Amino acid sequence: GRGIAIGGFASSQAGTVAEISVNTKTGKITVNTLYGAQVAGLSVAPSMIENQISGNLIMGTSRALVEEVVFNKTNVTSLDWVTYPLLRFADHPNVQYQVVQRTDLQPTGSGEPPQASVAAAIGNAFFDATGVRLLEAPLTPARVRATLKAAGVA
After folding, report:
1. I want to staple 115 with a disulfide (CB 3.0 to 4.6 A). Which of 30, 56, 96, 143 is the partner?
2. How far is CA 104 from CA 11, 13, 36, 38, 49, in A?
3. Which of helix, strand or coil describes residue 134?
4. Which of 9, 110, 7 has the alpha carbon at shortest distance from 50?
């Protein structure tokens, strides 16, 4: 499926297109490719903004698919890199990015703007692929299977 989302942060605008595949039996969402673009006004160092876009697309994927703070009745139980899941290198998407140079605008923020639209783009791509909306992140296999089952899809 494909999904599109746009967002803004730090007076910048960013957009993301996600191409995903969904294994309806296991519930695993694979983000194959993310396309990201950002308008940050006059870009003095576009290659540095490209690096920011790339990293934020991957970080946004990790947050959307696997990152979750877990609690028991009294404490946080995800206290380290073993118990707090992160996207692994083998699972990160191919990323394509573009800085939209706007010499007519003042420079604006760069860093997090591309991350703002990643989860929405993945969620919209999931809807495109399955016809079902996921309403809680992270989009773990267990949540995907439960949501598809409740919708009568799997």
Report:
1. 56
2. 15, 15, 21, 15, 18
3. coil
4. 110
pTM of the complete model beyond 0.90: yes
Helices and strands in the chain: count of H runs, count of E runs: 3, 4
Q: What is the DSSP string of 22-38?
A: E-TTT--EEEEEEEEEE
Give the C-alpha separation, 131 to 153, whole Å.
9
d(C-alpha 105, C-alpha 103), whole Å: 6
Token pair belonging to 69: 């703070």
| pLDDT grade for 75, boundaries at 50, 70 and 90 | very high
Q: How far apart are CA 122 and CA 58, in angstroms?
A: 12
Q: Which two tokens stand for residue 52?
A: 């920011």
Q: What is the pLDDT of residues 81-101, one digit of tens each?
A: 889 999 999 999 999 999 999
